[in-house]
Amino acid sequence: MTDITTAPTHIAAALAALAAAVLLGLLVHTSVRYLRADDELRASLRLEWRIRRTWKRQAPMHGLSVKDHTPTTAAQLATKDGRKPEVRELVPKIHTRVDRTGVTVRMRTLAGIGLAELQKAAPYLADTWRCPRISVLPDQPGWLSLRAVRYDPLATTTAYRPDGTVPKDLGTWPVGTDEFATAVKLPLKQVPGVTVAGLPGYGKTSLINGLICRLAPSNAVQFAVADGKASAASEGDYADTASRLFAFVGDDLAEANRLFHKLVKLHRGRYAHIRKALGTTDFWKVGPTPAWPLVVLVIDEAHTYFRDHKGSDPATKKLAALAHENARLVEHLVKKGRSVGILVILATQKATGDALPTFIRDICPVNLSFAQNTADAAVAALGDDIRNWPDVSPVSLRDPAYVGVASMALPGRVGFTRVRTPYVEPDDAARIAEQSAHLTCDPATLLPGSGGPEFVKAA
Ligand SMILES: Nc1ncnc2c1ncn2[C@@H]1O[C@H](COP(=O)(O)OP(=O)(O)OP(=O)(O)O)[C@@H](O)[C@H]1O
């Protein structure tokens, strides 16, 4: 029979043994995890411990705590008569997850401690935790996500070596990887226009060449390029892919005008025939086909074609009239081209209204920007909301380490994401263009009644 006077001692001993067993289990689990990890993961695990160990102390120092003046019922009962219950200091709860690059911390929001407060504290937390970078993202309602990296994964160059296979999905663009090393895709399906902005030499053209290389092996895509930096297809950034372009114009405004007119005519022709040819008035319901390909018009150094020319001499007046008309024609293509399978990609250094007319820029739903010099240029490229996300602003990308990194808004994600785009070697671009040159076809020749090229007739 158990002696009831010794029972509490036994229970306490059993509880202590249980607690010791749990602690031992945790210790073994942690040690095994650490020992089995590689060097990178071990370093991240040490960072995770540092964060967890110091959070309660550090959070209030960084303004991430609130004082709760309302005593809990238990505090009221425990407080002796005549004394006031102590004011409680609440620190947000955190959960951590570790990977080889760093630690993701999910933080519970508290009254008065939300996104703005965490964004403000982020650089100081980065110093405390000895991380080169911390970025803050909204998570589920009531939670924020904080990414603390030991080194910035975006500062490492990546490469894309196109293998010439036909992409399975022509409606998305695998544009690169974010700082969680997650693949990022941009939509092309149902998209009328994409803008790519950024300081010279930060990767705009390489990104577009990468897209051409991905799509070129498909005979359901045709490309036209207007490059404001070159005078002929044999020179400039698109010389390597020239054989895969059904049209190319350089910096000549009149030539560009002819190309834009031709494409507006293509839009009208397609519009007149689409229902009969595709059985629908929405190209993307059927998707690109060799007989009705997606037409990608790239306008690089777009400001060349649209900027205002001031002067009263006849030559300047002519240029001004051409630039004005070019803007109207491209507006037509962006406004009306999507449903018949025309996509316009506009690249420019600064997406301000003088370089890219706002009536074109503001109807392009996909916008990305490499480095920018000023907050105003970042706003012109990505919209006003980028002011609320200073840690991912293109202004913070002004560093040679970030050549090839662009900020963009992604469907389904709040705020903006920095994405490392892979570099495409010009030789690889040339190889793909050469292999797929036989697929090049002027889409106007595919319209019903135009005669059509041999390969479509034979198909
Ligand atoms: N994704 C990338 N990763 C690493 N380096 C890159 C990347 N893209 C471009 N670069 C480097 O930057 C150089 C300039 O790239 P690119 O011509 O694409 O820039 P740009 O923004 O189009 O410049 P510009 O406005 O002068 O045409 C390339 O020659 C290459 O060395």
UniProtKB/TrEMBL annotation:
Residues at which ATP binds: G198, L199, P200, G201, Y202, G203, K204, T205
The record's InterPro entries line, in alphabetical order, gives:
FtsK/SpoIIIE/SftA, FtsK_dom, P-loop_NTPase
Q: Which UniProt keywords apply?
A: ATP-binding, Nucleotide-binding
Which Pfam families does this entry report, sorted A to Z? FtsK_SpoIIIE
- Give every FtsK domain span: 181-379
User: Where are the annotated segments for Disordered?
Assistant: 62-82
Query: From what superkingdom does this record's organism come?
Result: Bacteria
What's the protein name?
Answer: FtsK/SpoIIIE domain-containing protein
Q: What is the lineage of its organism?
A: Bacteria, Bacillati, Actinomycetota, Actinomycetes, Kitasatosporales
